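Cross-posted from the bioinformatics board.
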Amino acid sequence: MTPVVRTIAALIFPFIIIFSFYVIMHGHLTPGGGFQGGAIGASAIVMLIVAYGARNVKKKAKEESLSIFESIGGLVFVIVGIIGFVAASSFLYNFLVGEPLFGTIPPFGSNPGILNSGGILPILNIAVGMKVIGGLASVVLVMALAGGDEE
Amino acid sequence: MNTDWLLQHSPALIIALPLLAAFLMPVVDRISRKARNVFAIIVLIVEEILVLFLAYDVFGGNPHIYTMGAANPLTTVPAQAAVPIRIVLEVDAMGIFMAMISATVCLAAGIYSLAFIEEEKGKGKYYTLLLLILVGMLGMELTGDMFNLFVFLEVLTIACTALIAYRSNTGDAVEGAFKFLIISSIAALFVLFAIALLYAQYDLLNMAALASAIQYSNLDKIALVLLVAAFAMKCGSVPMHFWTPDAYSVAPASITAILVAASQASLYALFRVCFSLYGVTLNLSTIGGALIIFGLLSMFVGVTMALPQKDIKRLMAYHAISQTGYMLLGVGVGLYLLAKPEFSTYGIKAMEGGIFHIINHAMYKGLLFLTSGAIFYRLKTRNLNEMGGLGHSMKWTAIFFIIGALAIAGIPPFNGFASKLLIYEAAYKVSPILSIIAMLVSILTLASFVKVFHSAFMGPKIYDVEEVPKSMLAGMAVLTFVIILFGLFPGWVVGNIVHPAAQALADQAAYIQAVIGG
């Protein structure tokens, strides 16, 4: 791609990633969540693949490390679920309610949205987000590499 | 760790454990080849033990309920609501019966794979996907929630597709996987649409709560047709069978054995929808008649298509269709006769036959596919005309093949005989023609396997090959052991395992009671 496209892609990349984190982190408050935010994050990597070519992207992010990243996302989800019945009462039990981390119970009625609430939901959203970023990006990367693009 | 605690949480643990192991697999894979193999086998064995442990309690007469994320897993209906809104796992005798099949087949296939895929690439991913298939099957079989059923159906589909295309250097494998993917996606969309129809009317996703609220409106009938068509598609019943020969024949043999169990998970979902979801509101004779017709078509078309095949796995795949027909016939006759009070004991008998046939078929067809894989492992061909004389050098494989072939043909004392006899007897009450067709199909099955045995194992020694590695023999031995056990003690198996499963399926009131009844 031309230098114009490459420069713009490099400039926009951090903002897309930040937006992706925003959607993931606010999954329990606003529309969106782990999957949607993860898809936005993966699309940032896809943009780099289009602008710089799959081979250049592969130097920075191998599909192996992406798939490890994806596995960690899956592991976090299942482990949080299992902690639910080892430490508390049932699988995926929301054991963080009342704790300092994400444990605030919001007051009844309308409020602007308290980020530090939701218990295990934000953690599950982050896990799903990691899984989707890793999974989608590695799928597109492998397909672009197999397609044999020249750049 | 006390056993009560483990027993209470085992429904969730059975699904969570292989899921955890599947995500750990890429990490373990980096340590060493041996660590990966040991890890996979240990997980499969622990899974089998957990399932049998839970099964022992469920067959003792305690269906298990597990509510995800609740303060007490047994309270399905939260204090602030009138209906179950959380995901509920409902493990009754039928569900755990299917889970036993899935866990056993996956264990045998996992052990078999150790040597079988030794020369292939991407073995870490192979085991990850194998465990995900197990997650999908067990999830479908243990869940009591319609949307959860759909999610696990998708998990199963994606993992199966990837493994069918495992030998992606051949064009056939990709074609088979593509066909499977298309059919499965259409079926999954049908299921999703049907769930949407039910959810829009009743605001419910829990199967037991839906079953108690269902009105049998026209929309419900449409949903029923969509669900029956989708699951019949997924279980490979004629006239939606055309993906089975392609997918079964190109997948690695160990995966084909698992695919048989995966098709049966869809068959289970079909029965669960007919009996537990629609049940009393259903016009039993009509839907029973439809299942009988599906069954007869599958039996007859499957076996007649199998006779002229030259590819050993394609031949077995057509037999799998034909055997699925027996299960549909058995349960269809059961539904048909349950509607007539004077014949209801025969109805239960027919269902026992159909359900017993599910586990028998998973065992012997799994075994037959594994033996075909053993032949492929040594000769690198699936063409029957290029085989011959293997009985001289591959004695154990030949013995396992004979046991599998006699069991599928329904020769006593193997397990196929017991379940087929139950089906013949009960089908005779509906119409003698049904029994005659079933027996005819059985004879044709025997003829076809005699042909395979003759062309693969008999004759002068042509190839100088050795017996397959020990782990492959061990995988086949696991299934053979079950076949012989069930063949020698069919009365005990029917009385203690199959009868409770058939009762659990037929007794819709108990299914609803377990979740929402006080």
